[in-house]
Design a protein that fits this description.
CATH class of the largest domain: Mainly Alpha
Structural class: alpha+beta
Organism: Caldimonas brevitalea
CATH superfamily of the largest domain: Outer membrane efflux proteins (OEP)
Strand content: 5-15%
CATH topology of the largest domain: Outer membrane efflux proteins (OEP)
Largest sheet: 4 strands, antiparallel
Strand order of the largest sheet: 1-2-3-4
GO molecular function, one term: efflux transmembrane transporter activity
Protein name: Heavy metal RND efflux outer membrane protein, CzcC family
Helix content: 55-70%
CATH architecture of the largest domain: Up-down Bundle
Order of helices and strands: EEHHHHEEHH
Keywords: Coiled coil
Shape: elongated
Number of helices: 6
InterPro entries: MdtP/NodT-like
Length: 355
């Protein structure tokens, strides 16, 4: 039955007062009350019950829309995280490509210097050893790229070309709007229609205090000697046991309304605490990234340059050069990791609430 509509009518056909004994037995015509009967019956639930059923159906549809919107937010968030994962994995791989090129230049230079006697043969071995370490690390990063590609395909079905984009796009994150709009959090979207469903169920239970009614119209065909007949009747439901039937159901559904309200309030408090923690973590990451970009990375790069200059002038060995260069590379990778964490945290926050 469609919500709020009358149930389908019923068709009744039959024979009434057909004699099976006595002198008129098995005769269609000798008994005046023998008749072939056809009728239509219609049950009519009370208006309040039908209104509650319509409200319940509307709320159910709204709940499905809310769940779909929450799923869309989750997909957009996961797609953004996968995109960022691939972007920064490829950025890291680019860093190691540059390091390998520098190592190759160093090996070529050392070969000539060893031949000229200005460098030790052990230096060439150290450079080759660094090349092997770089190759191992490059393979690890390539595996990270492939995993990130698989994750992005999982959410988008295709791989974008990131080669022309040096920087990841900035996410639009309005913290004031986020904190003031937590009632539109994806996890809370379904609560409003669920509460509406519970209230509609409660209203339907209250409406059951009033009985339904129905009507029946029938036509009876008799022998021509007696004439046909028409009958009409009304039926009324009598809710005579409200204390044991309707009232317990009403109380139960009232508790369901109160439970959903309490659950929503608890979820909102939990979400607010979680978002506050996420915002604090984002701010911490942003401060750490700022220090990494403004101080730690420039210092590591300057140290690598100074150490290389000292080596070229004979005041440092190659081991110090390689260690300083490795430290600079790790600082650059650390900066990329922090940038990835900042943008991932922004993405998680940006897709928490519905538009």
């Amino acid at each position: 039955m469609a919500a709020g509509q009358l149930p389908d009518p019923q068709l009744a056909v039959g024979v009434e007062n057909y004699p099976v004994s006595g002198p008129e037995r098995f005769s269609w015509t000798r008994e005046s009350m023998t008749m072939r009967r056809i009728g239509v019956m219609q049950e009519v639930p009370n208006a309040a019950k039908r209104a509650a059923q319509r409200d319940s159906a509307d709320a159910t549809a709204e709940r499905e829309r809310a769940m779909l919107e929450a799923e869309r937010l989750a997909v957009r968030r996961e797609a953004a995280l996968a995109w960022l994962g691939l972007h920064f994995a490829e950025r890291k791989l680019t860093v190691f490509t540059v390091l390998e090129q520098e190592n190759q230049v160093l090996q070529d230079t050392l070969a000539a210097r060893v031949a000229a006697g200005t460098a030790m043969p052990a230096d060439a071995l150290m450079a080759r050893q660094e090349a092997l370490e770089l190759a191992d690390r490059r393979d690890e990063l390539r595996a990270d790229v492939e995993r990130a590609q698989a994750q992005l395909r999982r959410w988008t079905g295709e791989l974008p070309d990131l080669s022309a984009r040096a920087e990841a796009p900035a996410l639009r994150l309005d913290l004031a709007r986020l904190l003031s709009g937590l009632d539109r959090h994806a996890e809370l979207l379904a609560y409003a229609p669920m509460q509406a469903m519970a209230r509609a169920d409660f209203d339907e239970a209250v409406a059951m205090r009033r009985g339904d009614w129905g009507w029946e119209l029938a036509y009876a065909n008799r022998d021509r000697a007696f004439g046909d007949m028409v009958s009409f009747q009304l039926t009324f439901e009598l809710p005579v046991s409200r204390a044991t039937r309707q009232e317990p159901l009403i109380a139960s559904r009232q508790k369901a309304v109160e439970r959903l309200q309490a659950e929503r309030e608890d979820a909102l408090r939990r979400i607010r605490a979680e978002v506050d923690a996420q915002v604090a973590e984002l701010q911490r990451l942003e401060r750490t990234l700022q220090r990494q970009q403004s101080a730690a990375l420039p210092l590591a790069q300057e140290r690598a340059k100074v150490t290389l200059t000292s080596y070229q002038s004979g005041r440092a060995d190659l081991g110090a050069v390689l260690a300083a260069r490795k430290s600079a590379a790790e600082a650059q990778l650390r900066g990329l990791d922090l940038q990835a964490q900042v943008m991932a945290q922004q993405a998680r926050l940006a897709y928490l609430i519905a538009e």
